[in-house]
Write a structure and sequence with these properties.
The complex is a heterodimer.
Chain A (H helix, E strand, L loop, with lengths): L4 E3 L2 E4 L5 E6 L6 E8 L3 E9 L2 E4 L8 E7 L2 E6 L8 E8 L9 E2 L3 E5 L1
Parallel strand pairs in A: 2-11
Antiparallel strand pairs in A: 1-3, 3-8, 4-5, 4-9, 5-6, 7-8, 9-10, 9-11
Chain B lengths: L2 E3 L4 E5 L4 E3 L2 E3 L5 E8 L6 E7 L6 E3 L2 E6 L4 E6 L8 E9 L6 E2 L3 E6 L1
The chains are: A mainly beta, B mainly beta.
Chain lengths: ~120, ~110
């Protein structure tokens, strides 16, 4: 079975541009998570969905960030407008149960560089 | 509030040595779950183990073993006879009752020297 798929793997953009990161969770998983990893802040949860519904977006840093999950097999994280401090690795993860018991499986990440 | 502390930022060992990675957690939940993930140089996060708060039995998987002690709020990870392929950043994480987001520690970078 394919794991979590993220695209693009690398993104370089200029400040002010819109960036869209994409994620396809593991088939059958009903929870999806977006994380950001930086040297300064480590791994931090941005938002997560259960059954396509956003449950907790308290980690979304600003209104410039938005996430959607239009169906069970696809999610996007959008940054508009992007800023250099958004440079990070963005991970998508999915899990198969609503509660905290099951482990999350991570995608390979998208390395975003904002110039 | 949930918190995970990995006090060891970096560890270097010579191949075949044993090494223990420390993890201390804080939570007010009575039911919670602890995890270890490995992040090799390629960057992906690989799940290693999950442990729930009601199961303090230690676990061994090949060269890996985990020691969970509620009395000290610790969930330590030992690699026996380390290998170069074990070189990675290792993260300990915590998930509380009714929530399935993970709180990660800051990670421990392990370097195994051949």
């Amino acid at each position: 079975d394919a794991g979590v798929i993220q695209s693009p793997r690398h993104e370089v953009t200029e400040m002010g541009q819109e960036v869209t990161l994409r994620c396809k969770p593991i088939s059958g998983h009903n929870s999806l998570f977006w994380y950001r990893q930086t040297m300064m802040r480590g791994l931090e949860l941005l938002i997560y969905f259960n059954n396509n519904v956003p449950i907790d977006d308290s980690g979304m840093p600003e209104d410039r960030f938005s996430a959607k999950m239009p169906n069970a097999s696809f999610s996007t994280l959008k940054i508009q407008p992007s800023e250099p401090r958004d440079s990070a690795v963005y991970f998508c993860a999915s899990s198969s149960r609503r509660d905290s018991y099951n482990e999350q499986f991570f995608g390979p990440g998208t390395r975003l560089t904002v110039l | 509030a949930q918190k995970v502390t990995q006090a060891q930022t970096e560890i270097s060992v010579v191949e075949k040595e044993d090494v223990t990675l420390d993890c201390v957690y804080e939570t007010r939940d009575t039911t919670y779950y602890l995890f270890w993930y490995k992040q090799p140089p390629s960057g992906e996060l690989v799940f290693l183990i999950r442990r729930n708060s009601f199961d303090e039995q230690n676990e061994i998987s090949g060269r890996y073993s985990w020691n969970f002690q509620k009395s000290t709020s610790s969930f330590n990870f030992t690699i026996t006879a380390s290998q170069v392929v074990d070189s990675a950043v290792y993260f300990c994480a915590l998930s509380g009752t009714g929530a399935n987001n993970l709180f990660f520690g800051t990670g421990t970078r392990l370097t195994v020297i051949p």
